[in-house]
Specification:
Elements lengths: L1 H38 L2 H5 L8 H32 L3 H16 L2 H13 L7 H26 L2 H9 L4 H28 L4 H4 L19 H10 L3 H30 L3
Amino acid sequence: MNRLMLNRLILLLSTASAVIGIGFLLWILTTLVFKGISSTHLSTFTHDLVNGGIRNLIVGQFTMALLATLIAVPLGVMAGIYLREYSQSPKLAATLRNLSDVMMSAPSIVIGVFVYALFVDPFGGYNGWAGSIALAIMMVPIIIGTTDNMLALVPKELREAGIALGGSKHKIILQIVLRAAKVGITTGILLSFARIIGETAPLLFTSANNQFFTMDMSGQFPSLTVSIYNLATYPDAASQDLAWAASFILTVIVLIINLGGRYLTRHKH
């Protein structure tokens, strides 16, 4: 009888916690959608921040994120391949995996301060390159973990078949193993991209922001997330409305990327 009562109590508490959590999430999303849609206009996409729009911010955010992806994907995939296919020391591999997990859970603001010390302060000011490097550092451990796990799911028989056919190790990895794991690795890359596209803290210390349209990454660079942070603190209603519109657009972008990753996972065949 006591076990039955305890089970019902735990079930009740779990259900209540889930309802409360989902309730707060729906409250946040409802508020965001209502205020975001009402504040979004055509000029929001056609004007730059200096003129009350976010065109330069969207371009700047995606420019830094895409450059970070170009840096992080080769490093992350190659590191994952090393851990799963080439590492001869289980202890070393376990240590590297633990370090990767620590990097994955590191606060983004700490990464921002680290990159500031190396790529901002020595060069005399904020710049877009530093912003991309900070975002790349955040992507690398996610890609390493995904690549490592996806390669572990590839059956050993495929590797043995490649060896039986006389293939060298690097050819087996490139032409057989990676092809078998490409959907899972691609999904991990998309999810890591979705994470960095909404990051603010590291960019506060690296790229800062720019109200004007520019592709010069040697100076302050436009950032959608930093602008949302700044606009939300301004006292005028126009700036706050623009912050709501930018937040709504960013949320939609992240949602689309995440849904794309989920779709690839479910339709990997």
